[in-house]
Amino acid sequence: MKYLGLAYFTPDRFAAMAPEDVKTLVGQCPALDAAMRAIGKVLVSASLGDLEHWRTLRPQGGKTRITDGPYTESKEVVGGLFIIEADSQDEALRIAAMHPAARIGEAGGWAVELIPLDFYLTTG
């Protein structure tokens, strides 16, 4: 079974952190990410780009309307994602718990959401 992990952060809380604390926090991420990937069950792992470059496309009046920023109106924003292939939900949870957003970053409002996927791979 495949699982999508969404790594969230809270921009306001992250922005309130001292720059040196942000640097220390973010500096811990590469080693934690590498340890998670070393298990061999992480198929995809990515950080998402800066919010000011996000665009949302939605249908409106028979045309596609493009607006700035994330679609969701929430305090938390997805900052990264990963896909795990695991034999059970318990295994997926153990792997997802290794992600930096599940282990560190409480001051920045970090969190991970784990979602089962119905995964279909298409080839062109």
Describe the structure in your own words.
- This protein has a single domain, classed as Alpha-Beta Plaits (2-Layer Sandwich), CATH 3.30.70.
- The model has no long low-confidence stretch (mean pLDDT 88).
- A four-stranded antiparallel beta sheet has the order 2-5-1-6. A two-stranded antiparallel ribbon has the order 3-4.
- It has helices spanning 11-15, 19-38, 89-96, 100-103, and strands at residues 2-9, 42-47, 55-60, 63-68, 77-85, 111-117.
- The two termini are 24 Å apart.
- It has 124 residues and is α+β, with helices and mostly antiparallel strands.
- The chain is built from four helices and six strands; from the N terminus they run βααββββααβ.
Rough shape? flat
- The CATH architecture can be named as 2-Layer Sandwich
What is the CATH top level name?
Alpha Beta
Describe the main β-sheet briefly: 4 strands, antiparallel
Task: Return the domain count.
Answer: 1
CATH level 3 topology: Alpha-Beta Plaits
| CATH H-level superfamily | Dimeric alpha+beta barrel
The helix fraction, in percent, is 25-40%
Q: Determine the mean pLDDT.
A: 88
The low-confidence parts are: none
In whole angstroms, how far apart are the ends? 24 Å
Strand content: 25-35%
Structural class: alpha+beta
- Backbone CA Rg: 16 Å
